[in-house]
């Protein structure tokens, strides 16, 4: 079971991630509406502190090709794309894409399956990063292939095992559910518990 810890914003968060060793760490970019949004300079300096076993993901909404290139220049391994995605961005030569779907755009799933630049999917609730979940039965009939099938949206250390059992994803993705009580950074115990719990359902 792959685990992605999203919404990393500080050196403190990086220490937690390095100690807990998820498979991926996500950093929100080019989306000032999010409290987790980072400048390219900050993202680059945080990625440089990341353990080499943890892959970095730029988490974006409707990015331009220039922004994909900026993320590549920062040193990211992947780009996660919510919202709209143009043909130039989908076939970009810089970063492999993790395509995020929300509950209202699942009908576009088939059109992305054949794209070799898309290496995985994240299925999320309507409002990304809101800590809200959705009806997982909507994913029941989606075909599985060799691309990473990741579940997100309102997961937390208490619900992740149930989610893994019900959906049988390749990976789980969390942001709000492992934040500290102030909501301004990650909580070591919650991140650790989330990862142990997710992997225990393998
Ligand atoms: O976290 C954000 O603010 C965010 C902003 C823009 C795009 C995605 C964002 N978050 C992603 O949403 C999912 C689920 O988050 P949660 O666990 O429900 O809080 C995850 O992939 C986040 O990276």
Automatic annotation (TrEMBL):
InterPro entries: Aldolase_TIM, PRAI_dom, RibuloseP-bd_barrel, TrpF_fam. Gene3D superfamilies: Aldolase class I. Pathway: Amino-acid biosynthesis; L-tryptophan biosynthesis; L-tryptophan from chorismate: step 3/5. Residues 3-195 form the N-(5'phosphoribosyl) anthranilate isomerase (PRAI) domain. One of its GO terms (molecular function) is isomerase activity. Its EC number is 5.3.1.24. Keywords: Amino-acid biosynthesis, Aromatic amino acid biosynthesis, Isomerase, Tryptophan biosynthesis. SUPFAM superfamilies: Ribulose-phoshate binding barrel. It holds the Pfam family PRAI. It catalyses: N-(5-phospho-beta-D-ribosyl)anthranilate = 1-(2-carboxyphenylamino)-1-deoxy-D-ribulose 5-phosphate. It comes from the Bacteria. The keyword Isomerase applies. PANTHER family: N-(5'-PHOSPHORIBOSYL)ANTHRANILATE ISOMERASE. HAMAP family: PRAI. Belongs to the TrpF family. This is N-(5'-phosphoribosyl)anthranilate isomerase. It comes from Ruminococcoides intestinale.
